[in-house]
Specification:
With about 575 residues, the protein is mainly alpha-helical. The protein is built from 14 helices and 8 strands.
Length: about 575
């Protein structure tokens, strides 16, 4: 156990022995401590029982923490008279280590201080502040014994109990964190497993549905191919080889697709494992192959059904074709007139797409006339099947001729609309040019865009003016120019908006700065509070007022002057 020291108040004993006055006897100078005692009560404020209890508590503290805590009670500090200096000199004279601390208490002047190094030691500067803070309530009540216990309890908490609590707290925190991590990992694993299971179940359901769809498609397509083979032979006998040419080609394609689909199904059914991606892809391909084949064959079958219906009503169908042919023939002359008017107004390039439409329409009419004549002869000979084929060919030719004629009229309408659209775009571009010229143009971008747009505008006006014009080409030029100048105008306006926004932000910032500057002022510390029990801050800067935090360090009094004393907490 470390050596314990007590205050040897030799100077005080000498003064008492010399018969000095009681007021002088209350002053005590610092001196070394004697071993064996933790508490020196020169002020005689502790009873023997309190002294014994304090010694036992401080002995226990030293044994449990390795920190020696010593107390000296004196009436007042003298030579030096400042509390911290007095305690520091006494501790230095006693040779206290960095794990031994002295608390000096002046019971009459009601100030106290605790010594210790500026850094290091078992009890830090901030912790020594905790110790003195814990003593204050008891000292204000002049409960000296309780003040000793409070200081000992605080040191116990600082050195042993507090770290133990912190360690336990961190241990508990660590255990909780580990448990949380474990729970989180388990939850994530469970969720991941469930998600994977759900995804696997959805994938299996998708594959099962595709597999079922593919199986149904295979059976249906196989039936359609077989029935189409019978249908083809029946159509050959009814309408001849020439009429079934497309049907034969469609049937060959369907057979090839069906063979490929059965091959894929065999790969799915063999013993070799297939990936989910392969199963999905192959089943989808089977469905696609079967669907294409079935649709093509059913379309051909429907065409033969219509042909058979024509065969049953061949005379009436032939008369209907004659009426359609007459109407289409009359429209050819009208198409010629429309095209002639276009040729006198527009450039050759603008009407080139329909230049030979009427010639092709007349060719279709000639073919229609041949088929009508053939069908008439076949009906007379009782060959209604052949007549149905001729009537169908005549219907197709009339339909093609009508489409060629309609295309000429549609082009006339399109060119007229292009003329109107071109005039509107010219006016719009002229307005855009005026708008752009009014914009700021520090770098010349706007001027360049205006010049380019002007050239395009001149080119478009040339294409739109007079005979031989091409409004379609003019529209392409105008649309490109309009898009370009619109982008330039918008970019300049956006830049102007950004500049205006930045200026507004700057103005607001300057206004806020003016307000802050005009609202500034000086401040002064509040006057120090009156009577109170002072305590020294554990650092060498002096004592700190426990209520206001103001420094209570005193300067060393001049020679012959009494040390300044603090008021008692009870007003004494």
């Amino acid at each position: 156990m470390r050596t314990r020291w007590t205050v040897v108040v030799g100077l005080l004993a000498a003064l008492l022995g010399s018969g000095l006055a009681a007021g002088a006897a209350s002053a005590t100078a610092p001196g070394p401590l004697d071993p064996g005692v933790y508490v020196t009560d020169t002020s005689d404020v502790l009873t023997p029982a309190q002294q014994k209890a304090a010694e036992a508590r401080l002995t226990e503290l030293d044994e449990q923490t390795g920190v020696g805590l010593f107390f000296v009670f004196v009436p007042e500090f003298t030579d030096p008279s400042t509390d911290r200096e007095w305690v520091d000199e006494t501790a230095a004279a006693s040779g206290l280590s960095d794990r031994q601390y002295l608390i000096g208490i002046a019971t009459d002047t009601r100030v106290f201080a605790m010594n210790g190094p500026e850094s290091g030691g078992a009890v830090s500067v901030s912790d020594r502040a905790r110790v003195t803070e814990a003593m204050l309530p008891s000292l204000r009540q002049s409960d000296w014994a309780r003040a000793i216990d409070a200081a000992a309890d605080e040191v116990q908490d600082i050195v042993v109990d507090g770290p133990a609590r912190t360690a336990r707290g961190w241990t508990i925190f660590g255990l909780v964190a580990v448990a949380a991590v474990i729970i989180l990992v388990v939850v994530l694993q469970v969720r991941r497993s469930r998600r994977r299971a759900a995804e696997k179940a959805a994938r299996e359901a998708e594959i099962a549905a595709l597999s079922q769809q593919a199986s149904i498609a295979l059976v249906r397509t196989d039936d359609v191919v077989k029935s189409s083979e019978q249908e083809m032979e029946y159509a050959r006998a009814q309408f001849g080889d020439e009429a079934i040419g497309e049907f034969v080609a469609a049937l060959e394609t369907a057979r090839t697709n069906l063979d490929q689909a059965f091959s894929l199904q065999q790969r799915l059914d063999d013993e070799i494992p297939d990936t989910d991606e392969e199963r999905i892809a192959w089943n989808r391909l089977i469905v696609q192959l079967c669907s294409d084949s079935t649709r093509s064959l059913e379309e051909r079958k429907a065409a033969f059904d219509e042909l058979r219906e024509l065969e049953q009503n061949a005379p009436a169908a032939l008369e209907n074709v004659r009426r359609l042919r007459a109407a289409a023939g009359a429209e050819i002359d009208r198409a010629d007139q429309i095209f002639a008017a276009l040729a006198t107004t527009y450039a050759t390039a603008a009407i080139a797409t329909v230049a030979d439409n009427t010639a092709q329409a007349r060719s279709r009419m000639a073919f229609t006339d041949e088929q009508i004549q053939t069908a008439d002869q076949q009906i007379a000979a009782g060959k209604t099947g052949d007549a149905a084929v001729s009537i169908r060919a005549a219907e197709g030719a009339v339909q093609q001729a009508t489409q060629l004629e309609d295309a000429v009229e549609q082009l006339a309408n399109d060119l007229k609309a292009a003329d109107e659209r071109g005039v509107a775009l010219v006016a719009e571009l002229q307005t855009d040019i005026l708008t752009a010229q009014a914009l700021p143009d520090a770098q010349g971008f706007v001027a360049q865009a205006v010049a380019t747009t002007g050239r395009h505008l001149s080119d478009a006006q040339r294409l739109l003016g007079g005979t031989g014009r091409n409004p379609v080409d003019a529209l392409r030029v105008l649309d490109a120019a309009n898009t370009a100048i619109d982008q330039v105008v918008q970019q300049v306006r956006d830049e102007q908006a950004r500049i205006a926004h930045a200026r507004s932000l700057l103005g607001a910032a300057l206004e806020r700065a003016d307000v802050q500057i005009s609202g500034g002022g000086e401040f002064h510390p509040e006057p120090a509070r009156g009577d109170q029990l002072h305590r020294s801050h554990p650092s060498r800067r002096g004592a700190v007022d426990p209520r206001s935090g103001a420094s209570s360090r005193r300067r060393r009094p001049a020679a012959g002057a009494r040390p300044r004393t603090a008021g008692r907490p009870d007003g004494g």
